[in-house]
């Protein structure tokens, strides 16, 4: 007998400094993803702007502010531009594998180097190995870690240079967290490549969307998300195409360049 669906209970966090807009406070509404209907609940909440973190689904619920906007790429209508096509060709030697959500030491060390170069003072900078394992392995939904490696040499796997924790939802792929080699001399554009690969993966799987999380207009660290078009945003009227004024050329020095 199928277990009855229980309407989730929602909670609200205490206000905290906003990581994107100086001088503002952020607040989140969240609920636990558990029980036999966790996958269905996550799918439903994802369509109304929630994101997953371990076994919790959350979204911003800030007093007097709606700057954080959920965005998703329409995969069947996406057409790569010349720069994106060059990036894919330049990295066509990489070996890409969707692995079960199991944390490895190699992944964690790559994450630590990524955080030290890109987000040294961010909220994840002090993440320990167990924290990373919890992030990857405590998933009540259909998740994978997509690994990006340099070519295999002999019987030795190539060096890991990128990874993304990804959820497969009913209508698309949700990119939970990606990280990559950001040290001097590393391949350029790896963050963008990971997004492009997910768009192609979703299209091949017949999934109409790739969810990129939240976008904040005017926040430089979010500008890269407008490179992938057509891009939809979630508003009071549901999902709609983003306006041209929002899709100004992204700054090439943003965090995924």
Walk me through what this model shows:
The chain has 257 residues and is α+β, with helices and mostly antiparallel strands. 22% of the residues lie in helices and 29% in strands. The chain has helices at residues 38-46, 82-90, 105-118, 129-137, 190-204, and strands at 11-12, 16-17, 25-26, 28-32, 51-53, 56-60, 68-74, 95-99, 143-149, 160-169, 172-180, 209-216, 231-235, 238-241. Strands 8-9-10-11-12-7-13-14 form an eight-stranded mixed sheet, sandwiched between helices. A four-stranded antiparallel sheet has the order 1-4-6-5, with helices on one face. A hairpin with a 2-residue loop joins strand 13 and strand 14 (238-241). The longest helix is centred in the last third of the chain and has 15 residues, at 190-204. It is globular. Mean pLDDT is 92; it is low at 250-255.
Provide the CATH topology of the largest domain.
Aminopeptidase
Count of β-strands: 14
Shape: globular
**In CATH, what is the class of the largest domain?**
Alpha Beta
- Compressed to H and E, one letter per element, the order equals EEEEHEEEHEHHEEEHEEE
Q: Considering DSSP H and I runs of 4 or more, what fraction of the residues is helical?
A: 10-25%
The CATH homologous superfamily of the largest domain is called Gcn5-related N-acetyltransferase (GNAT)
CATH architecture of the largest domain: 3-Layer(aba) Sandwich
Structural class: alpha+beta
User: Beta-strand level of the residues, as a percent range?
Assistant: 25-35%
Whole-number radius of gyration? 18 Å
Q: Which parts are unreliable, with pLDDT below 50 for 5 consecutive residues or more?
A: 250-255
End-to-end C-alpha gap: 51 Å
């Amino acid at each position: 007998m199928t277990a009855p669906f229980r309407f989730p209970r929602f909670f609200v966090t205490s206000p905290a400094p906003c990581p994107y807009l100086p001088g503002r406070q952020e607040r989140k509404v969240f609920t636990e993803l558990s029980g036999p209907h966790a996958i269905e609940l996550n799918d439903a909440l994802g369509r109304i702007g929630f994101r997953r973190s371990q076994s919790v689904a959350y979204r911003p619920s800030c007093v007097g502010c709606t700057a954080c906007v959920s965005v998703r790429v329409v995969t069947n209508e996406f057409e790569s531009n010349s720069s994106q096509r060059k990036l894919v060709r330049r990295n066509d030697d990489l070996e890409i594998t969707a692995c079960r959500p199991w944390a490895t030491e190699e992944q964690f060390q790559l994450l630590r180097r990524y955080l030290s170069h890109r987000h040294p003072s961010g909220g994840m900078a002090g993440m320990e190995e167990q924290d990373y394992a919890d992030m990857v392995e405590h998933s009540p939904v259909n998740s994978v870690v997509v690994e990006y490696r340099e070519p295999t040499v002999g019987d030795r796997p190539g060096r890991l240079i990128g990874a993304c924790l990804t959820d497969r939802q009913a209508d698309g792929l949700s990119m939970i967290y990606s990280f990559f080699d950001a040290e001097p001399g590393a391949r350029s554009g790896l963050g963008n490549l990971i997004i492009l690969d997910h768009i192609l993966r979703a299209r091949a799987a017949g999934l109409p969307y790739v969810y990129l999380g939240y976008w904040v207009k005017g926040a430089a660290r979010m500008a890269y998300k407008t490179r992938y078009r057509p891009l939809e945003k979630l508003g009071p009227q549901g999902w709609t195409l983003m306006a041209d004024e929002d899709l100004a050329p992204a700054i090439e020095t943003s965090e995924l360049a």
